[in-house]
Amino acid sequence: EAFIPKIIEVNYIEGSGDKRWSSHDFSWTKELEVNNKKVFGNHSFRPNQREVINATMSGCDVFVLMPTGGGKSLTYQLPALICQGITLVISPLVSLIQDQIMHLLQANIPATYLSANMEWTEQQEILRELTSDYCKYKLLYVTPEKVVKSDNLLRHLENLHFRELLARIVIDEAHCVSQWGHDFRPDYQGLGILKQKFPNTPVLALTATATASVKEDVVQALGLVNCVIFRQSFNRPNLWYSVVPKTKKCLEDIDKFIRENHFDECGIIYCLSRMDCEKVAGNLQECGHKCAFYHGSMDPPQRAFVQNQWSKDEINIICATVAFGMGINKPDVRFVIHHSLPKSIEGYHQECGRAGRDGQRSSCVLYYSYSDYIRVKHMISQGGAIEQSPLTSGYNRSNMINPGSILETNTENLMRMVSYCENDVDCRRLLQLVHFGEKFNSSTCHKTCDNCLKITNFIEKDVTEIAKQLVELVKLTGQRFSSSHILEVYRGSFSQMVKKNRHETVSLHAAGKHLAKGEASRILHHLVVEDILVEEVKKSDFYGSISSILKVNEPKVCNLFAGHRIILRFPSSVKATKPGKSDATPAKGSLTSGKQNVFPIDTPQPQTEVDLNLSAKL
Ligand code: ADP
Ligand code: MG
Ligand code: ZN
User: Where's it mainly located (predicted)?
Assistant: First the structure.
């Protein structure tokens, strides 16, 4: 009599904080503790590890949200060791799989993997072993492609299941299921077949990044039933966040920042392009830093060499694209610098997360300029031109279900990153955590981000009229100019360019002369973030450079003129900026002399405003 599980509408149960899962009275408790020490060499469990293990071993479907480095692997490797049968692990990258298997074999845990680029005979041998009554493997790793495309594998899994030897199905990096995530892999969407075929086998889905919509997607696509969710705070109290205006002397600023705060300490500088990596690394070397670059067009031994040098502290700083970082476990990374705009808040959070694994205070500094937004946007629209994280780089783009919607998602993710950077009022932690669906009380930031450090109070101001004027101005000048040009006209410039185009005769010329440059540009950029104005980016045929034109998005403009108000925040008491000191570097010795002034608080632009709604939307 087959047992048909009843599917209940409510699809998940909050597991964190439920005392049941932290009990030490499960029949397997003793065995867990012994093996955790003996086989894995751990003295204790980290937050949520015991709970997750107890829930999955009780037979529940479990969804785990745990920051990178939190110890997700143990939550399935330990059960795999002590349960009957085989644990199937789906993991997105062969290199990640190989790394895991190496560690398992070192601990004497029999594990293997199947991937499409393996010799056929080797695959056959592993499959044959699965059919054996005395199968030696405890864990079988596969890539998602393998599950979706290999009927042969599915038949072997059915056979294992029939013999009650399929212990558990693990989906690692589960956010790859979702188009909303930053690492979408189409084949992950086909993994729902596993729950259909093996409805009673417990599924354990693991990820370090999931917004509410990603979580929804994952639970849906995998067909998880009454899933127990464990999530822990993504806040990293020992990371200090700041965003600094990126100027022409950005490289000087970075050199100075490192010299004064992290001299001879270990760090990562994320750069947008391969060329940038080499340029930044070269420059810092000249300044006397022990530094190298790392990117996707280096061959694997070269990359491994650099990574190894860095791991052994033979060099301090690595200038890398996002290709660098996955699976990196260096505990004493003291700073992560973003030389240009990251592509999404999730990516940014994860990249910053590589700092301070040892719990010691570390800095995350992002150098932001609006023109980098134009650059990244252009690269995204070109597809492929931009370096990908290793998770997404391996697959063929023609696999994509809907390339158009991917482009849209990427653009939207980028936009949120822009509004994060433009926001100079709200707590950086709050802005990040809201994005992960987490509530956060900014007062617990304790001035460990630039915004909390400099803002004491703010007032709200209605800037709707200014916004309307800016939109009008874009129209009056024929939707042919860049945002910086529009700002010049609005603030009443008489530059050659303005004169040449006779903008000084346009009715709104100088209408915004009472505004500081920073104020006007923040409002304009806000209109772009809100999709009321759109940046049309293109490569100029002549010089091969990128240019951008501001256009009006009519449907959204209607809202603006139909009574929709735009409220922005202004700091009402801003810490006085010391005259003559406009570089983006904190005071010397600040790091040792206490918790103040660690952040570059003197910025070239005046403090301005930010929309309240932004944080709600982020
Ligand atoms: P994640 O997959 O969540 O990013 P990993 O599973 O790769 O993290 O674990 C990160 C590191 O933490 C590994 O080096 C692992 O050995 C270590 N680790 C995991 N659990 C524990 C524990 N209970 N005690 C000590 N170290 C642990
Ligand atoms: Mg992992
Ligand atoms: Zn803060």
Answer: nucleus
